[in-house]
Each structure stands twice: as structure tokens, then as C-alpha cells.
Amino acid sequence: MRLRAFTAGDAADCHRVFHRAVHEGAACAYSAEERAAWAPATRMPDDWGARLARHSTWVALRRGGVCGFLTLGRDGHIDLFYVLPEERGQGTADRLYEAAEAEARALGLGWLTTEASLLARPFLERRGWICEARQSSIREGVALTSFRMAKCLAPPVTPPGE
């Protein structure tokens, strides 16, 4: 598996990863109705490529195909972070996340933030993220549970004399 920067030609493959991650990968945590509201169309939205291009976006490749991706905004917000269901436990999400956190630190960002799913929350908590709030958003008339999460990137301050 290797990582590289997103290119416009990756948009359709990233949308396929997103759709499969939601409909197959999240089936253990979200109902069919919730998944349909979260990712309603198999057709890629017209603004999908532009949404990915607005951010620093990493694409994970295995056997020549896109198997995951992550977007990081200039403000430290992770907007999209998805891997194919068969990539779970293979280190793909770890590598994508490590690349994003390294970039955020290199840019001098103090915080990372995201709206995490039920599945993403434990992944992020294992990496030092805190859950600020459980929230519910309405999509397509369906309430979806997520968590507002954050991670401080600033080095710990050592009090004088210690």
C-alpha cells in the first residue's frame, strides 16, 4: 500500500470508496436507513472532485486501485476519512491518519478537529483525540449520530523547575 496526493482523476474512485465504506463498512453501526441518508447516491455529486481538491487530500493505493482517502482542511479539520471495508485492520487508515497529522504539525496547526462516526470515534480516541460532544444531524429526514472531536497538537508545556 502506498500514499500519494489526490489528483482530479481520483474523484470517482474516492466516491466509490466513500459509498462502499458507508454502505458496507458501517453496516455494523448504522441502520440501512441511516446509511442511505448518509450516502444516498451511487452517482458522484457534481461538486465531489472540487470538495476533495479544496483540501490536502491523501489517497491510499493498493494493487493500483484507490482503497482509502483522507481530507485535511487548512484549519485542521478532517472532513472526509474513509477506507474500503476490506482495508480495515490492514494499516490503511493508520497511514492516512499519520500523513495528515504530520502535515498539520508541519504547518504549525494547534488542533485537529472532525465530526466522527460511531466507527471512527474509537480509532481517533486511541490516537489521543477527545470527544467534545455527541451530536445528531438530520440528512434526508433521518437523524445520524456523530461526535465532535478534537486533538491538541501543541507540545505539552513543562512548568518551570520541572
Report on this structure.
- The chain is built from five helices and seven strands.
- The termini are far apart.
- It has helices at residues 11-25, 32-38, 48-53, 92-106, 120-125; strands at 2-5, 56-62, 65-72, 77-83, 111-116, 130-139, 142-152.
- A hairpin with a 2-residue loop joins strand 2 (56-62) and strand 3 (65-72).
- The protein has a domain at 2-109: Gcn5-related N-acetyltransferase (GNAT) (Aminopeptidase).
- It is 30% helix and 33% strand.
- The chain is globular, with a radius of gyration of 16 Å.
What is the CATH class designation of the domain at 2-109? Answer: Alpha Beta
Assign the CATH architecture of the domain at 2-109. Answer: 3-Layer(aba) Sandwich
Q: Report how far the terminal alpha carbons are from each other.
A: 43 Å
Question: What is the fold named in CATH at topology level of the domain at 2-109?
Answer: Aminopeptidase
Low-confidence stretches: none
Sheet with the most strands: spatial strand order: 1-2-3-4-5-7-6
Number of strands: 7
Shape: globular
Please state roughly what percent of the residues sit in beta strands, choosing from under 5%, 5-15%, 15-25%, 25-35%, 35-45% or over 45%: 25-35%
User: What structural class results from the helix and strand content?
Assistant: alpha+beta
Largest sheet, if any? 7 strands, mixed
- Average pLDDT: 94
SSE ordering: EHHHEEEHEHEE
| Total of DSSP H or I helical runs spanning 4+ residues | 5
Q: Could you name the CATH homologous superfamily of the domain at 2-109?
A: Gcn5-related N-acetyltransferase (GNAT)
Radius of gyration: 16 Å
Helix content: 25-40%
